[in-house]
Specification:
single chain, alpha+beta, Thrombin, subunit H, seven-stranded antiparallel β-sheet, six-stranded antiparallel β-barrel, 7 helices, 22 strands, disordered N terminus
Length: 413
Amino acid sequence: MSDDEITSAEESTPRVEPVTAPESTPEAETPPSTPTQTPWWVSDASSSVSTSLTTLAPAKRVIQVTWYIALAMSLIAGVVGALIGKTAFDNSTNLITSNKVIDRAPDSIAGIAARVSPSVVEIDSTTSSGSDTGSGFFIAKNGYIMTNNHVIETAFLAKAKITVKLSNNNEYTATVVGRDTSYDLAVLKIDVSDAPALVLGNSDNVQVGDPVIAIGSPLGLQGTVTSGIISAKNRPVTTSSDNTAGESSFIDALQTDAAINPGNSGGPLVDATGAVIGVNSAIASLGSTIDGQPGSIGLGFAFPINQAKTQADQLIKTGTSHHPIVGMSLDSSYPGPGAKIADTASAILPGGPAAKAGLQPGDIILAIDGQEISVADDLIVAIRSHAIGDTVTLKYQRGSVIKSVQVTLVASQ
């Protein structure tokens, strides 16, 4: 019982002091006896009991108030318990949902992916050395498909079956129209008509920072879409290959941070309009991560579509292709700066552009068209980024003398 309750009770009922024995002191005199006021039909003992009961009456009223509170608290506890039980055992979570339709613009990533994906294919092959999976895309309605040479090279050399799987999961056996080992490109064909060929853009117009989308079958996951930007242009990239010519592929690549993984090779890199600007070809990696294969670290490289179009056209028309050359052999062990013409008698092709320009073994090429050359691969990539018949300016050093000379590129044999 609280102090407030006691105070309230005392104010509502006249207080009757109980009869107590007085304290005993030596000097105190016994007061004269006073006639009792108790009625004759009530004994003094009964009067004491009555007084005590009257004094305790407020306590009884407090007990009654507490009983009502207890009852109310019990009811509240019951309701709360029921709610907790319902929440714990009711399967309905009452989550907030929305049925609003997302408006995806045609030029959004989703819109572009929806248009481009049906034109992208998965390329599979199996040989005694294992299975290979890559990507490709239609470049003509009559079933021509562009891809990387390294995607189909092992199967081609082993004369194994190459299977093309479309986005609708239909499968076709492909024939190899032609391969270009120096650019790591190949053209396949399947027997279809009215294929959804992609629009080929202009890779020369690409700028660093442009948004791009990569579509392919990384690790066999068909129809995978990733996005990013163009991180850099004119990246010299060299990839090794087990081709019959023993050549490496040299690419004047577009660099992108769109995720590219094993299996993306040969797939398209498209711009914000859905036009192809590159063929996904290589990645830089810190090491093997999945099944002994490297994974994306945001450094992917695509072969520019302008050069790829030229090579594909040659492959479709003749089954072979050629690349531009200067007609000289370089010393790959020279550390730079610059690219050194090998110190051998056969380093200069007789009658070739280098010979006509007066270049000699031991000369160091410092720049091409004003672009500095660090190592031999830089020069090879720069030359192969041009077309046959183009004229370029080479800056070279012979001893302490630095000169410049123009040469016209010719086709490789």
